[in-house]
Amino acid sequence: MTLLYPAFLWLLIPVLILFFTKKNRNLISTVHLIILILIVTALTRPVIKLGLQEQAVEAKDIIIALDVSYSMRAKDIMPTRYDFAKETIAAFLAANPKDNIMLIAFTTNPLLLSPPTTDHELVNMALKSFNPEYILTKGTSLKKLFRKIASMQSEEKNLLLITDGGEENNPEELARQIKNSGIKLTVLALGTKQGSTIETPDGTLLKDKEHHLVVSRINPMLEKLVSKTGGEYLTASSTPEATSGVLQDAMEHHRQKSELITKKQYRYSEFYQIPLLLALLLFLILHTRAVKMLLVLFSFLGIHAEASLFESYHLNQAYKSYHAEDYNRTKKLLDTLDNSSLQSQFALANTYYKLHDYQKAITLYRAIHSTSAKTKQKLYYNIANSYAMLKVYDKAKIYYTKALQLGEDADAAYNLRLVALLQKKKAPLGMAHPKSQSADGGKSESQQSDKKQNKEEAQPSSGSGSGGESKAGQKKEKKQLILDESQKKQPLSSKVYELINKGYIRETQPW
């Protein structure tokens, strides 16, 4: 037993003080204090951990590159360009909790601060612990930044560049570099055309070698670069929150591709309903006479310990939309569920199948784990159907065979013969709709983690079917993201600053 929100226990102090210090208490006041104690206990969310659960999450891959050069200390955007950028990133992370975000800081040299993750607390931690006072490089090299991003192994390179400009004055060369790297560029330009002087830590204004005041202006090359690459050029709004909203609209306008990534999260069995119901029952006993009727009502409600009433409502609405063949609404309703269950995962995978997004359906089916042979048979059959629709007949044969090994299935046997024939003839697919492709296909089964089965499903053996799986058909899976609540906040090491400060003594244009 553990508490998700133990901070609420502080509310017990005044209640307990009243309980033990108040004299001449009658029965009613004592019961009222007990009710308060039960309500506070419910607020702490008592739970029992059931272990880690894999969950496929739809997210966009976004790379945020933050300029940390000396010119970002200018105050033409208050409080400074750098502080405004940090607050904008924090608001953007809060507004896009599901997105897979990478954070890079750059001056003359780029440096990865946070690898791609949906755990935005880690990104915020890296952003807060980064100290620009330790940055010795003062210039801004977009060429090196784009080269770094081009070297990354990522299908979607959606770059959100937050800067006041770079040293380069050749937008044509940078545009060729961006197009050759497959980068989709969105620029948030921080600064003004008039520019601003830069204040040093001792309060004086920054000067160049000839003792002239340094005035940092927005580089007009940025806008030319964006126009040549078909990207989005944005400027700061009145507040970081408003700027974040503009960035979101720009990202949606780009129609960036959403992908399925796998996360591991703890599953809990909730018990907050117990003290809450006891408190309600005690209150009604004191103030009503229909106690017997209330007890009967509670027995009929049967509140489920795994999901809230709102989630059950959304799940039932999703089933209705599915049967009404409104699959887009079904997907939206299922996305609102915070706690993923076996039936909701099945329904979401089947919805993607009906929307003809077979690759995402396969990813979701593979993320479902159960010790039930009947559930596994349905999973194998559905995965085989998805591969058959993609005309990947080798894998379809493997999974139809796996389904038949778990029990007789006339449809699986028929489809296995059909894909074997289609593989030889390379004919168009003419399969019937799979019988187990219903929204509530796993509604009555319990979901458990099975590591051995997970390995077997992720890499199907060629010996289980009549055809082997070719290397060309194998797809690289995304890395699993594991949330570790016990992880402590660690400051960035000095090695980090050494990497970004590399070569600072050879800077030719340090502003």
Could you characterize the architecture of this molecule?
With 511 residues, the protein is α/β, with parallel strands linked by helices. The chain folds into three domains: 73 residues, no CATH class; 199 residues, Rossmann fold (3-Layer(aba) Sandwich); 132 residues, Alpha Horseshoe (Serine Threonine Protein Phosphatase 5, Tetratricopeptide repeat), CATH 1.25.40. It is 45% helix and 15% strand. The protein has 19 helices and eleven strands. The strands form two sheets. Strands 1, 2, 3, 4, 5, 6, 9, 10 and 11 form a nine-stranded mixed beta sheet that branches. Helix 2 runs antiparallel to helix 9, helix 13 runs antiparallel to helix 14 and helix 16 runs antiparallel to helix 17. The longest helix has 17 residues. The protein is flat, with a radius of gyration of 29 Å. The chain starts with a strand and ends in an 11-residue tail after the last helix. The relative contact order is 0.12. About 13% of the residues have low confidence.
Provide the number of structural domains. 3
Distance between the termini: 57 Å
CATH architecture of the largest domain: 3-Layer(aba) Sandwich
Number of strands: 11
The coarse overall form would be: flat
Portion of residues in helices?
40-55%
CATH superfamily heading of the largest domain? von Willebrand factor, type A domain
CATH topology of the largest domain: Rossmann fold
CATH class of the largest domain: Alpha Beta
So how many helices?
19
**How much of the sequence is in beta strands?**
5-15%
Order of helices and strands: EHHEHEEHHEHEEEHEHEHHHHHHHHHHEH
Average pLDDT? 75
Q: Major sheet: size, sense and barrel closure?
A: 9 strands, mixed
Computed structural class? alpha/beta
What integer value in Å does the Rg equal? 29 Å
Q: Uncertain runs with pLDDT below 50, 5 residues or more?
A: 300-307, 432-438, 440-490
